[in-house]
Protein: ATP-binding cassette subfamily B protein
Organism: Stackebrandtia albiflava
Amino acid sequence: MIPDSTDKPEPPARRHALSSLWRLRSYLRPYRYRMLAMLLLAGASTAASLLVPRMIQSVIDGPIAGGDLTGLWLFGLAVGVLGIAEGVTIWLRRYIQARVALSLEADMRTDLYAHMQRLHAGFHDRWQTGQLLARATSDLGSMRRFLAWGLIFGLMSIVTYVAVVVQLLFMHLWLGLVVAASAVPLFIVARNFARNFIKASRNVQDQQGEVAAIAEQAAQGIRVIKAFGRSPHMQAKFDAEAGTLRDLSIGKLNISARSWSLFTVIPNATLAVVLVGGAAAVASETLTLGALVAFVTLQLMLIWPIEALGWIIANGNEAMTAADRVKDVFDTEPAITDRPSAVPVDRAKSKGLVRFEKVTFTYEETGTPVLKDVDLEVRPGETLAIAGATGSGKTTLVSLIPRLYDVSSGRITIDGVDIRDITLASLRTVVSTAFEDPTLFSMSVRENLTLGRSDATDADIEEALSVAQADFVHELPFGLDTRVGEQGLSLSGGQRQRLALARAVLVRPAVLVLDDPLSALDVHTEELVERALASVLTGTTALLVVHRPSTVALADRVALLADGGIAAIGTHSELLESTPAYAAVLSAESEEVNA
Ligand SMILES: Nc1ncnc2c1ncn2[C@@H]1O[C@H](COP(=O)(O)OP(=O)(O)OP(=O)(O)O)[C@@H](O)[C@H]1O
């Protein structure tokens, strides 16, 4: 049973966004030489472009002022060569940059996916899928843009700014100081911009996650929504969230618009001062005409780095926010891992003696124990049914055996070994599970069946299919190769349940955990499956969550779960005689099922 998925964790308060981004620097390491090459190439193209104004100055003050045009072709040639050099270095840098950027994003995405896979079931209970998707897509995109583009352009903008301003100071100290001083208001605007944008950016990104979550839930639950005629309600909910996203995005754009206009006005106002002051300097012969033209051309070259500075700050902020959000996931340690002392167990040698010793379990979010001091033993080869009122903790109890969740206290052993001392990979070959709500993946029937045992032969698959009475797969358009799941052929609930059962049986586990595996089957099919399943269960330890008396027939003994503990245990007939609550639970459940 999964809690309301809106119970997502609160995003952590804005903390060290910069340090979050800094921590991801290890992703840059494999690309450090290529990034260095990118920087050198960017430096070369900037140097080439900075030389052109000085060439113009030489032409104006030399051949033009002197009226001697003999050496002019040399200047033309030099400017042409510089232009070509600039073009080639830009092309090379972009060529490298595109590959580095996309590989970097792919590396981060692969790691994030792998980490999400390692995270325990409790994490996925708490996080909305949409929020995780937003982190794996748009957030990683923002980080890629900054690490591979923003960072290089940022450095280049600063280098260009310094190089130009130093040249300007040498050309004319006072006018150079005016241009240098214009950096101060620019810096203040940039800093304020950063401060406001970082907040707006995070809000927009969080809201994007909300919208993605609603869209994802609506797509998954489309049948329920239609069946209950809730489309207008869902639409209204979506509209409200999408409206909030629009407003937040407009707010964010307003912040950039205000700052960008200042980013443009300040250099242009400076240019006006330089033109007037420069003309006066030329008139008083403290500056040559060529130097003034070069001065203005160089100063105009500053507009791009300054504008880029605004963009890079915004991009950097977005990347920091994104890194912070991605870090929320990366920083969640998988709660269920191999202990250092864990050893693998051999499925073939496992007897399948399962024991619960004083097991207490509490879901993290709720705080109230679902299971309290449960002691239970399932002998090798025995089939134990778990019965109990709805919400009594049956699914929880069986989920603890494959360690989907870890006990809060006490321990569970298989053949006397604490399951936490067994490596997870081998535990999950010893224990195989079929859940009440069977998940099939968007892949072929064969791939779905062999998820737990990739080396299964066709004969093994046939055997498992016949136990689960799932021979219908042969009638599918491409038999075992038919694609099922979300993007494939839709199967009925009963068909999916039988495939999930076949998948669990195919593993040939020492311990088989079946959570109400026949609930979606009609009475006739249920009888056929039970008959076939009985032969598998003879040599396997099995825990069977049951709701109806017919399934109880498969079990050697039944445990009745109530108030977080085992209220009674014995054969079906013993419990029927001794425990009125047992009969009540079964009849209530079967009435519910029949209804
Ligand atoms: N992932 C979860 N996080 C928090 N609480 C949970 C979670 N899953 C189940 N619970 C709670 O734990 C209790 C036991 O749930 P569980 O699903 O184990 O009962 P159950 O006996 O299998 O119920 P049913 O017969 O209806 O399937 C319930 O109160 C339920 O709300």
